[in-house]
């Protein structure tokens, strides 16, 4: 257990992920590979070590997942294209300043083709729908500077249908509120400048109620805490400018206690195995809480704030002030 | 990871009936550094899968191959997708497929693909009847599984058949009977009663609201510190535009540090059931509720708000940090008290 952030270990942990091709988990997670690269790179950038992974190799990998027929990216060269991996590819290329490698027009066409009559987006041709995919579409179009091609009213109308009596949002219309779905809906509305659709008093109260006595956050009432909710809950509170509604020092202590002090990386909760997913979302949470030395993270896009600012896309979110030590 | 349950099969590369398929390696340049038993199996199966996708074959053996891959890695969405296309192309009996899914869903409750595949199948069979029982069974395994509940809502809303809806309230009652803190069940109740049209027998909306208020009050009395039930109460009031003030008599005893003095009344007041014995009081949600009542009553009632603030302040030692979770109300209270004391809240 450590009470400070083990940056060198986490950098080494992320670097080692790409070297473990002989491990089964590497192959079993191929369908998330593009996302994992995005998580790893973002984590490194937040720690100020963006150059720890080879840039050319990363760009080559991303471009090897381009599907010329579909006009989008898959998570791995032999997988089907998906909205999740397409967003991750765009984010990676942006962070590597290599977005000029893609055919923007074709990607926009692919994304828009996934919007359903109700306004929700499917993730791929298989047809699963989810507010996650609405966020992916809105985020990607915004990063590509093509939001004007989206039917915004129709998109917002679907998100509105997912709003529940507790102020939260579910993954489809009628589904229970869940902190991760709150993040995707609130962030999508923020990008679309439609935060007026959020019942802010009710939602912020619900979000602040996610903190448990041990400092960790859960995703729904009466569920276990998990480090990844540090981001889902904090990002939404940050976007709504209510980060002070939770006890930041207790949450910080909880995230730090989930670090793997030997191999590096952050787990879902103390004592469990780390993974890159919980590593980025733990770091993202710490950045929003003003942890010293970390780089500012934009909670709407989950990317370094400076990159989003340079694109002119920064919204009115607020993080806690970065502490000097 | 779950290993295939059936007895060990030879690798596809060793089976004569697969000799006509050209397997496609994933990493031509990477030698297996530390091959372990099931890594070979997974690599073998996915090599043949890539070969099949390339040739476009859709045959019964593709169903066997994709099942093998899915059993090893239920998140492999390309295998799911190709499996579905093959089922359609072969006009395979979908009831068999659903039976297989009964088993796989329970094993992989948290995998998106399991549920989406099931939706696609049921859209084809158009036979939602058995699904509710299947869902009830899988909720026994994981009573709060997000996908399972969402699938239940989808079945109800998509087929929207009175017979399907008719047992939902009983089902909810039994789920809340076994765990009154199950937020998924509370959410589902709201979905059934208020969010999906008017059910047969529920035409008298005033009676429905009275029934729901009685239902939730009774469960708050059993377990007062249950955020899900208080959320439900607020949800009902907001939805039906009933003022919080009308609940004051019920909420007040829960917002005080001790149960009301004197012996409990012989006759239980159904409108305002009291906290059960040994309840931990005051209940944070009730204090916040009282604060809302006083806030709604306006600035003229600041004295009352002050009392509530006093209760919160004095009982700080009982309350975790989050009990100060709603400074929009707290700010009013603290302004009234003008102490500047914000507890342990950050600046």
UniProtKB/TrEMBL annotation, chain A:
Keywords, sorted A to Z: Metal-binding, Prenyltransferase, Repeat, Transferase, Zinc
Subunit: Heterodimer of an alpha and a beta subunit.
Cofactor: how and how many bound: Binds 1 zinc ion per subunit.
Record's keyword annotation contains Repeat: yes
One Gene Ontology cellular component annotation held by this UniProt entry: Rab-protein geranylgeranyltransferase complex
Domain Prenyltransferase alpha-alpha toroid: 6-303
Cofactor (UniProt): Zn(2+)
Catalytic activity: geranylgeranyl diphosphate + L-cysteinyl-[protein] = S-geranylgeranyl-L-cysteinyl-[protein] + diphosphate
Domain of life: Eukaryota
Class of this enzyme: transferase
E.C. number(s) listed in UniProt: 2.5.1.60
Family: Belongs to the protein prenyltransferase subunit beta family.
Name this protein carries in UniProt: Geranylgeranyl transferase type-2 subunit beta
Transmembrane feature ranges: none
Family annotation (InterPro entries): PGGT1B-like (IPR045089), Prenyltrans (IPR001330), Ptb1 (IPR026873), Terpenoid_cyclase/PrenylTrfase (IPR008930)
Pfam families: Prenyltrans
Role description: Catalyzes the transfer of a geranylgeranyl moiety from geranylgeranyl diphosphate to both cysteines of proteins with the C-terminal sequence -XXCC, -XCXC and -CCXX.
Gene Ontology terms, MF aspect: metal ion binding; Rab geranylgeranyltransferase activity
PANTHER family: GERANYLGERANYL TRANSFERASE TYPE BETA SUBUNIT, GERANYLGERANYL TRANSFERASE TYPE-2 SUBUNIT BETA
Coiled coil segments of this chain: none
Any GO BP: protein localization to membrane
UniProt xrefs under Gene3D superfamilies: 1.50.10.20
UniProtKB/TrEMBL annotation, chain B:
Listed cofactors: Mg(2+)
Chain segments annotated as coiled-coil in the UniProt record: none
Species annotation: Suillus fuscotomentosus
Protein name: Protein farnesyltransferase/geranylgeranyltransferase type-1 subunit alpha
InterPro entries, per database record: Prenyl_trans_a
EC identifiers of the protein: 2.5.1.58, 2.5.1.59
Keyword Magnesium: yes
Protein keywords: Magnesium, Prenyltransferase, Repeat, Transferase
Pfam families: PPTA
Keyword Transferase: yes
């Amino acid at each position: 257990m450590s009470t400070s952030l083990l940056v060198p270990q986490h950098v080494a942990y992320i670097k080692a992920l790409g070297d473990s091709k002989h491990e089964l988990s590497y192959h079993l997670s191929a369908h998330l590979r593009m996302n994992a690269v995005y998580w790893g790179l973002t984590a490194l950038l937040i720690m100020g070590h963006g150059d720890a992974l080879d840039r050319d190799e990363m760009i080559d990998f991303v471009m090897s997942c381009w599907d010329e027929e579909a006009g989008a990216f898959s998570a791995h060269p032999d997988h089907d294209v998906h909205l999740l991996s397409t967003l991750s590819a765009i984010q990676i290329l942006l962070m590597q300043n290599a977005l000029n490698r893609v055919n923007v027009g074709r990607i926009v066409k692919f994304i828009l083709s996934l919007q359903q009559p109700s306004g929700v987006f499917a993730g791929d041709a298989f047809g699963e729908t989810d507010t996650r995919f609405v966020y992916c579409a809105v985020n990607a179009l915004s990063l590509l500077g093509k939001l004007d091609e989206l039917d915004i009213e129709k998109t917002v109308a679907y998100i509105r249908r997912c709003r529940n009596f507790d102020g939260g949002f579910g993954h489809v219309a009628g589904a229970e509120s869940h902190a991760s779905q709150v993040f995707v809906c609130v962030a999508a509305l923020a990008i679309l400048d439609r935060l007026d659709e959020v019942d802010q008093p009710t939602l912020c109260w619900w979000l602040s109620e996610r903190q448990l006595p041990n400092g960790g956050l859960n995703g729904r009432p009466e569920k276990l805490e998990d480090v990844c909710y540090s981001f889902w809950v904090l990002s939404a509170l940050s976007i709504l400018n209510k980060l002070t509604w939770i006890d930041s020092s207790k949450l910080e202590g909880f995230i730090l206690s989930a670090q793997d002090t030997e191999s590096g990386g952050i787990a879902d909760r103390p004592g469990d195995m780390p993974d890159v997913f919980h590593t980025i979302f733990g770091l993202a949470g710490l950045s929003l809480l003003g942890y010293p030395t970390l780089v500012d993270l934009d909670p709407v896009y989950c990317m370094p704030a400076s990159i989003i600012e340079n694109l002119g896309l920064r919204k009115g979110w607020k993080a806690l002030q970065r502490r000097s030590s | 990871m779950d290993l295939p349950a059936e007895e060990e099969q030879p690798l596809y590369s060793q089976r004569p009936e697969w000799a006509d398929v050209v397997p496609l390696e994933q990493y031509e340049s990477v030698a297996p550094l530390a091959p372990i038993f099931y890594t070979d199996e997974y690599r073998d199966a996915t090599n043949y899968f890539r070969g099949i996708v390339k040739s476009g074959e859709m045959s019964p053996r593709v169903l066997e191959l994709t099942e093998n891959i899915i059993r090893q890695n239920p998140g492999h969405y390309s295998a799911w997708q190709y499996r579905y296309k093959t089922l359609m192309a072969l006009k395979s009996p979908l009831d068999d497929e659903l039976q297989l899914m009964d088993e796989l869903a329970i094993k992989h409750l948290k995998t998106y693909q399991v549920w989406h595949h099931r939706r696609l199948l049921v859209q084809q069979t158009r036979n939602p009847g058995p699904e509710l029982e299947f869902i009830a069974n899988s909720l026994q395994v994981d009573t709060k599984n997000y996908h399972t509940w969402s699938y239940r809502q989808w079945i109800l809303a998509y087929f929207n058949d009175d017979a399907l809806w008719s047992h939902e309230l009983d089902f909810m009652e039994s789920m809340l009977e076994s765990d009154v803190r199950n937020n998924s069940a509370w959410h589902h109740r709201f979905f059934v009663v208020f969010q999906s049209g008017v059910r047969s027998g529920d035409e008298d909306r005033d009676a429905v609201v009275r029934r729901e208020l009685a239902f939730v009050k009774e469960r708050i009395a059993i377990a007062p510190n249950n955020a899900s039930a208080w959320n439900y109460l607020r949800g009902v009031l907001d939805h039906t535009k009933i003022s919080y003030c009308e609940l004051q008599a019920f909420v007040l005893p829960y917002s005080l540090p001790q149960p009301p003095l004197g012996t409990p009344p012989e006759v239980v007041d159904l409108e305002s059931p009291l906290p059960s014995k040994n309840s931990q009081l005051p209940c944070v949600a009730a204090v916040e509720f009282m604060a809302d009542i006083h806030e709604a009553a306006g600035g003229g009632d600041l004295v009352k708000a002050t009392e509530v603030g006093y209760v919160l302040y004095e009982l700080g030692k009982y309350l975790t940090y989050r009990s100060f979770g709603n400074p929009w109300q707290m700010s009013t209270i603290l302004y009234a008290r003008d102490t500047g004391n914000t507890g342990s809240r950050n600046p």
